[in-house]
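Structure in, sequence out. Go:
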């Protein structure tokens, strides 16, 4: 009994890890979602990615279906028939052959049934040769199409993710502005109550606070809309909430990249796809050249024929027959069609070769434009980052001077507006910098989902 118990628990412990690994991935996200989690979720749930993966499966089944013709093809046929009137054949008069007379004779029996087995084996067939030669390239092409879709999804989700994060930052900027406006309103009201200033400053402070609250509402609605867009790109259910992990330091680090990396066309998925198309086109040329080869197959047939004048006795006796042989078909002359098809395939290959040059020019232009945009955005970002520090310092100084009666409240409003504008411009510049960085990485072909 003890040995049985130990055996049971040993088997249980061996099976449990397999069961755990076989459980499907969770369909929800953590309370604070990182960019990597968003990308992983999108690559598993985005409809375009799932369609591309289904296309891969369809291609795989299609290739296997075509290659199945290399296997022996076994078929069964069966029929049963009853003559309402027997066929008539005309035969010579064997009793008096010299007379030249003919006799009408009914042939066969009223009831016939045939069961037949046929076995066919393709030996030489250009369609099968093409399917066998191009199978791996077709698989590769389907996989590359999926990779191209995933690259687009990664870039789009990343841009939408950063857009949401930076909108959240702008919302925090407006919250800070509301806090400052409320403090300024209290200071203006207290100075008005003390008779230091007139009610103009108090009313201006109220206007500034109302504007800040309106901007907060506007930013909140923009954030909800951008979250909805991000969820649509991820394939995430619209009714479920999503909160992103906000890390300002990480955002600043993500914005920088090495701008000295050389462009390699082979890293681009479009270039890889074009190379696969070229390989398939070379196989198409061979396919057309194989049109001069015969189609050869071997066959074996076995038939059992049941015949009887009475239907009830139809299957009492059989008359089997069987044969095997070799089939060969070779078109001799088709009006030059095969030569023209070969030439068409060769011309299409030449056209693909020129497509490489066009693609290289497009990729190079895309890379140069993305890199130039990144460098310009980087300069702009660094400038605006410095402006934020300067604007915050100016605001703090003017705020103290206003409390001391040195500056007017108008100076406070101007400084506060300058600070908010600098912070908003900074967050926008940061998003543009990160977005242009993603464009450079896509142009380089370094995004590998």
């Amino acid at each position: 009994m003890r040995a049985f118990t130990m055996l049971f628990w040993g088997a249980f412990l061996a099976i449990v890890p397999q069961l755990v690994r076989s459980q499907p991935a969770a369909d929800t996200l953590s309370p604070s979602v990182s960019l990597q989690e968003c990308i992983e979720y999108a690559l598993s749930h985005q409809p375009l990615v799932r369609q591309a993966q289904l296309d891969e499966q369809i291609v795989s089944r299609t290739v296997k279906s075509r290659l199945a013709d290399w296997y022996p093809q076994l078929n069964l046929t069966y029929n049963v028939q009853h003559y309402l009137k027997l066929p008539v054949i005309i035969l010579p008069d064997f009793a008096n052959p010299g007379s030249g007379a003919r006799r009408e004779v009914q042939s066969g029996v009223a009831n016939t049934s045939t069961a037949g087995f046929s076995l066919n084996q393709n030996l030489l067939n250009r369609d099968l040769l093409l399917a066998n030669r191009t199978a791996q390239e077709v698989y590769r092409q389907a996989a590359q199409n999926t990779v191209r879709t995933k690259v687009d999804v990664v870039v789009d989700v990343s841009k939408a993710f950063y857009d949401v994060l930076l909108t959240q930052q702008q919302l925090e900027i407006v919250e800070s502005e509301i806090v400052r406006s409320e403090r300024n309103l209290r200071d203006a009201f207290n100075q008005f109550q003390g008779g230091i200033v007139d009610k103009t400053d108090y009313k201006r402070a109220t206007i500034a606070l109302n504007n800040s609250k309106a901007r907060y509402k506007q930013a909140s609605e923009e954030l909800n809309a951008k979250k909805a867009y991000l969820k649509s790109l991820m394939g995430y259910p619209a009714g479920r909430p999503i909160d992103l992990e906000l890390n300002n330091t990480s955002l600043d680090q993500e914005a920088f990249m090495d701008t000295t990396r050389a462009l390699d066309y082979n890293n681009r998925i479009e270039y890889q796809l074009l190379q696969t198309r070229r390989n398939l086109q070379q196989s198409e040329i061979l396919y057309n050249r194989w049109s001069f080869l015969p189609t050869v197959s071997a066959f074996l047939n076995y038939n059992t024929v049941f015949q009887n004048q009475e239907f009830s006795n139809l299957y009492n006796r059989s008359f089997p027959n069987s044969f095997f042989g070799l089939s060969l078909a070779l078109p001799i002359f088709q009006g030059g069609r095969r030569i023209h098809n070969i030439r068409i395939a060769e011309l299409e290959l030449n056209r693909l070769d020129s497509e490489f040059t066009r693609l290289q020019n497009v990729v190079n232009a895309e890379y140069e434009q993305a890199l130039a945009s990144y460098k310009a955005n980087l300069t702009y970002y660094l400038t605006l980052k410095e402006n934020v520090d300067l604007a915050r310092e100016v605001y703090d100084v003017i705020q103290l001077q206003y409390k001391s009666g040195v500056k007017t409240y108008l100076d406070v409003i101007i400084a506060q507006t300058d600070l908010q504008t600098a912070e908003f411009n900074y967050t926008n510049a940061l998003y543009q910098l990160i977005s242009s960085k993603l464009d450079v990485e896509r142009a380089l072909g370094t995004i590998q989902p």
